[in-house]
Amino acid sequence: MKAVRVLSRWLLVLCVPLLLLSGMIGVAFNSLWIYTSGFSKYDVASKMELSEAELKRATQELIAYFNNPNQQYLDISVTYDNGQAGPLYDRDAVAHMKDVKGLLWLDYYICLFSVVYILSYSAVLWFRERSEISNELTIGTWRGGLSTLGLVAFLGLFAVTGFDGFFTAFHEIFFPHGNYEFSPYDHMVIMFPHGFWFDVAMLVGIVVLGLGLLVAGGGWLFLRYFNRREFSIGVKSP
After folding, report:
1. How distant is the alpha carbon of residue 117 from its chain centre?
2. Residues 153-186: pLDDT tens digits?
3. Where are the beta strands (DSSP E) in the chain?
4. Fewer CB within 10 Å: C terminus or N terminus of the chain?
């Protein structure tokens, strides 16, 4: 029984960085602003000979595809500046996007699991150990915040010192079939160059780092308040 309690507490700690990281990744993949800002920075519309409006529309369709569980393959057609219409991605890129969508949904499930576990853990404490709920949750979230800081620092250092290696290792692990290698002239590479992903990774890392600091700092402050309150009650009690 003790082992189960210890395991459940540490699972709570693990769920905090999982929730923050998976949640922010989900937000990034659904943020039209992140896409359009990156496209503007890397002059994507001009390189692809598309209008800004047409590129924005295609991006909105891409986001909708990621969130539609009933659509297996991406099918986006665009009209180029010369008036010709055609598919945005070729067959290889469509297959790659299918794998990307699968990873994104895995991210959604991780985020959902983290939320459900944290709420379930809180509910169990509420019904079984109501007097300890504040202390237990505060310690768990404080440790979770610290774990988040450690995880982001590790991944950030790895990414900053060798992002190309980090990018390649990530794809070799999650795309074992090798369908992530494209020609420099492929629309996939033009729209999403390494610099784009580096910027997104840094943005996600900074936001998650800030959230981790808030969680850890808030937990530490509440622990100080909680312990001081418990001490004062103990002193005043007869």
Report:
1. 18
2. 888 887 778 888 888 888 888 886 667 788 888 9
3. 77-79, 85-87
4. C
